[in-house]
């Protein structure tokens, strides 16, 4: 960027009222008018703790010592708008002060709402962003990420919201920021837990100015190297793209190495998840609060931040395929009257019961599940198993006094790092009232490699409001080769 361009940019900032980070074309400029690639870290804990964990000025100094020029701070809408709002707001403001004093910009991320990570922001999020934007609109070093990880909604809901289902769309959240008089850069994450930005090129771009798009590549099926160009790489010539989260957990593959090489080649900004001490399964990039990089990924992130990015690794030849896994010899029973040996209840639904006697398909008990608030019946196997050994997940359902729409329910499978794998699969049919019906979910519909190891699955509400109460019984995995 030459001297004349800098002057013109600064003049345009004064005219437009923008005093901070600015998007021009597919580039981001910092408040001094310098083109910048954001390179930093994610700082969690303020989403689950009103005071945060290990929140102090030195923590930000350590981030900066790695070479980070930005920190993304997760926030909780309920804390901000709740009874302890003023104290929490002061806490977040203090983090911003410490981070900027250390020489970094700040991305304030709406991470949790309505008790946790939801499918999307809700109508209260509009109030949240009106208040946050008003508080930080005069801080040149603050940017806003509108919602952490949208998922399992349509692009139309993502953009414009859906008041019937208490969903606030990205356009509404953007409008709330601008309506508060804030011209700060806004970051907008896509679908599929923010990974997928394909809809932006299909007519679902947020209308406005000073907008960048956020993606979250993690080492899951469907989010691998071959998937990056269609998900977010195609957008790089048009908009700034920022990987505001990424990681590979405890895997020993080259996922993050390949990802950072891709980002470097394509001039993609990023912040690494996460500057938090909780081990590689979190995944953390630091081993302690002294800022010691965790072996592998943490060391790699630190090397990039310090300006010593390693040379791209030579391509490797994958091992020859060994064919699909052998089918299991018999069905895997998960639930009949109670959980089978080795299975654990990790559910987050409320209310629910694993020993209901109101409606029973077989035996003496079934699972009662109140379908509301994105709650889920999550059943966890203590021994991982190969998903391709089975052809389908089957169970019987009963809607009790009223039927439940198939669109209100989704099934997800979980991997050895306890993260969601592949696709969420809607029920193939509605849950009938006052009768039992078989639900069969083909394993292939989850979109994962047959050799994938899984540790469980969730039958989850896909709606924020109540859709009714259902009962589930006789849950099993059918052996491959059987229907």
Task: Give an overview in words.
It contains 10 helices and 22 strands. It has 2 domains: 3-305, Glycosidases (TIM Barrel), CATH 3.20.20.80; 332-479, Sandwich (Jelly Rolls). The protein has an 8-stranded parallel β-barrel with strand order 3-4-5-6-7-8-9-10, surrounded by 5 helices. Strands 11, 12, 14, 15, 17, 20 and 22 form a 7-stranded antiparallel β-sheet that branches. A 5-stranded antiparallel β-sheet has the order 13-16-21-18-19, with no helix packed on it. It has helices at residues 3-16, 57-66, 77-81, 85-101, 124-136, 155-160, 170-179, 228-231, 255-266, 297-305, and strands at residues 22-24, 27-29, 39-43, 70-76, 105-112, 142-145, 186-189, 211-215, 241-243, 269-272, 332-336, 338-339, 343-345, 352-356, 366-371, 376-386, 390-398, 409-415, 420-426, 437-442, 453-461, 468-479. The chain starts with a helix and ends with a strand. α5 (124-136) packs parallel to α7 (170-179). With 483 residues, the chain is α/β, with parallel strands linked by helices.
């Amino acid at each position: 960027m030459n001297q004349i361009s800098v002057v013109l940019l600064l003049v345009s900032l004064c005219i437009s009222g923008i005093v901070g980070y600015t998007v021009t074309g597919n580039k981001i400029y910092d408040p001094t008018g310098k083109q910048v690639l954001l390179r930093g870290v994610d700082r969690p804990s303020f989403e689950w703790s009103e005071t945060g964990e290990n929140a102090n000025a030195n923590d930000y100094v350590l981030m900066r010592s790695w070479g980070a020029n930005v920190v993304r701070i997760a926030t909780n809408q309920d804390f901000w708008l709740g009874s302890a709002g003023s104290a929490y707001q002061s806490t977040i403001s203090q983090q911003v002060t410490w981070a900027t004093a250390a020489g970094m910009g700040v991305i304030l991320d709406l991470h949790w709402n309505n008790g946790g990570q939801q499918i999307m922001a809700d109508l209260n999020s509009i109030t949240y962003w009106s208040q946050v934007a008003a508080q930080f609109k005069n801080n040149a070093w603050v940017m806003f990420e509108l919602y952490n990880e949208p998922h399992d909604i349509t692009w139309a809901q993502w953009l414009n919201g859906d008041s019937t289902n208490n969903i606030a769309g990205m356009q509404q959240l953007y409008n709330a920021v601008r309506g508060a008089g804030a011209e700060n850069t806004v970051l907008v994450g896509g679908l599929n837990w923010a990974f997928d930005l394909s809809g932006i090129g299909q007519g679902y771009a947020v209308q406005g100015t000073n907008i960048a798009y956020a993606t979250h590549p993690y080492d899951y099926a469907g989010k691998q190297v071959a998937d990056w160009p269609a998900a977010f790489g195609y957008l790089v010539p048009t908009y700034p793209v920022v990987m505001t989260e990424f990681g590979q957990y405890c895997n020993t593959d080259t996922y993050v190495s390949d990802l950072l090489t891709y980002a470097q080649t394509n001039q993609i900004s990023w912040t690494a998840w996460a500057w938090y001490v909780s081990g590689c399964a979190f995944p953390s990039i630091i081993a302690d609060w002294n800022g010691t990089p965790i072996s592998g990924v943490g060391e790699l992130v630190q090397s990039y931040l310090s300006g010593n990015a390693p040379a791209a690794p030579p391509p490797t030849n994958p091992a020859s395929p060994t064919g699909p896994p052998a089918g299991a010899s018999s069905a895997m029973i998960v639930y009949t009257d109670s959980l089978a040996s080795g299975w654990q209840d990790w559910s987050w639904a409320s209310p629910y019961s694993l020993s209901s006697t109101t409606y029973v398909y077989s035996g003496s008990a079934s699972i009662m599940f109140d379908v509301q608030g994105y709650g889920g019946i999550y059943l966890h196997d203590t021994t991982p198993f190969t998903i391709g050994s089975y052809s389908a997940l089957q169970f019987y359902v009963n809607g009790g006094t009223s039927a439940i729409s198939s669109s209100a329910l989704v099934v997800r499978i979980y991997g050895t790092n306890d993260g969601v794998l592949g696709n969420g699969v809607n029920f193939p049919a509605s849950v009938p009232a006052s009768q039992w019906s078989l639900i069969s979910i083909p394993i292939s519909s989850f979109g994962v490699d047959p050799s994938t190891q899984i540790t469980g699955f969730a039958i989850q509400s896909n709606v924020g409001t109540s859709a009714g109460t259902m009962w589930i019984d006789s849950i099993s995995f059918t052996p491959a080769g059987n229907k």
